[in-house]
Amino acid sequence: MSLEMVVATPAPMGFSPVQASNRAVGPSSNTGQKSTLTAPIIDFCVVVIDSEKAKKLTRKMPLGDLVRYVFGTGSAIVVGPIQDRVFNFYPRSATMVDETGSVCGKIGLDDDGKVCISLSGQGCQHVRSWPQVANVLDDLDARISHVDIAIDDLTGETFNLQTFRDLYDRGEFVMNGRPPQAQYVDDCGSNKGCSFYVGQRGHKQLNIYEKGKQLGDPESGHTRCELRLYAKRIDLPNDVLRNPGKYFAGSYPMLAAYVVGEAERLLTKEQMVNASAKAMVRFLRNQAGTALNLVMDALGDDAVEFLMEHVVRDGRPGRMKNVVGDLPALVRAQLQTIPSQEAA
Questions:
Q1: Residue 138 needs a FRET pair 20 to 30 A away by CA distance; which of 92, 181, 236, 319 works?
Q2: What count of other Cβ atoms lies within 10 Å of the Cβ of residue 129?
Q3: CA angle, 272 then 277 then 280, to 5°
């Protein structure tokens, strides 16, 4: 993999979320067409529960109940046993697993009752109300130490990787007189997806990557712009969970143009399943297409029964094992949209 680096002296970390506005903004706001941008979503969240008020609660509440209380995930997430394994400098930890059997986060604990809950993007899918999470954190005097806010362009019509590389080259990311460091990761023509990073991990970082290609569709224009905010260097209030778009727009001035999305997480999930479904069909065609054709020719009407008995097996393809919700319904809808020449 080739790696191209553009490095400059990091600017001091500043952060001032913009105020919400009713003014229409964004490249597609005056086109009369529905935006291909999604609404800002929380895609990673780490909270620290360390106030005396919170410790009284955590000492008597099982970890599974604590996760449900803070994040409102119901029975979708379970917490494994506490182990003597270090996580984020906490001496003990436990792993969270969701209803699909996927790891969706970690919990760190220390001997003083301090708890750190790290919810991955997989786990964030199960949170029903982020404003309610913020309310609970406020009530517990708990705080956020890291949050990722993502906006997807489902088609790549409004922005893609080159959009942000051009913005960087024009100096649009310069703050306090100096540009943040940047890094471009090329997929070297493999069509597995390129990435562009602006800023530093652990400080404030923007990650733009070709989400559709990453999921297996080489022709997809689906691009994700993900902002990573860390409390280490900036004031990161719980309000970011109530108004993620405001904080996304406030991190770099040009990002305000992209907080125009209407699509919610469900549409993003459908787009991701679509890319995986197309990749699955391509895999079947390339790896087993001729063999299946021979079985169909040999057995005729009995071929489906034979395949069900001897070939089909339980479980999900690896690329879809983490999908939350009614996967068969999502795949059915996406398979019906694949053009015949593509599935042929």
A1: 92
A2: 13
A3: 130
Residues in Cβ contact with 66 at an 8 Å cutoff, skipping those fewer than 6 apart:
49, 57, 58, 115, 117
Given the structure tokens 């599935």, which residue do they identify? 343
Give dist(CA 38, CA 40) in Å, integer.
6
- Neighbouring CB atoms inside 10 A of 128's CB total 11
Give the amino acid at 283. F
Identity of the highest mean pLDDT range in 4-8, 59-63, 71-75, 212-216: 71-75
- The CA-based diameter of the chain, rounded to the nearest angstrom, is 72
pLDDT of residue 330: 63
Query: For residue 18, what are the contacts with CB-CB under 8 A and spacing of at least 6?
Result: 246, 249, 250, 256
From residue 338, how far is each of 279, 318, 334, 341, 342 by CA, in Å? Answer: 11, 21, 7, 8, 6
Q: Which stretch of DSSP H or E encloses residue 50?
A: none
- Separation of alpha carbons 223 and 285, rounded Å: 26
Q: Provide the residue type at 56 as one letter.
A: K
CA–chain centroid gap for 288, Å, is: 32
DSSP helix/strand/coil, 283: helix
Length reported for the chain: 344
Q: Beta partners for 37?
A: 153
| Mean pLDDT of the chain, nearest integer | 81
- For 249, the token pair is 């727009």
Instruction: State pLDDT tens for residues 112-152.
Output: 889 999 999 999 999 999 999 999 999 999 999 999 999 99
Residues 6+ apart with CB under 8 A from 7: 181, 182
Given a cut of 70, whether residue 180 has pLDDT beyond it is yes
Residue showing tokens 């459908």: 270
SS3 string of 75-117?
HHEEECCCECCCECCECEEEEEEECCCCEEEEEEECCCCCEEE
Say which amino acid occupies 96. M
Residue of 115, 130, 122 lying closest to 65 (CA atoms): 115
Q: Residue 300 — pLDDT band, cuts 50, 70, 90?
A: confident
Residue 67 has pLDDT above 90, yes or no: yes
Is the separation of the CB atoms in 262 and 41 below 8 Å?
Answer: no
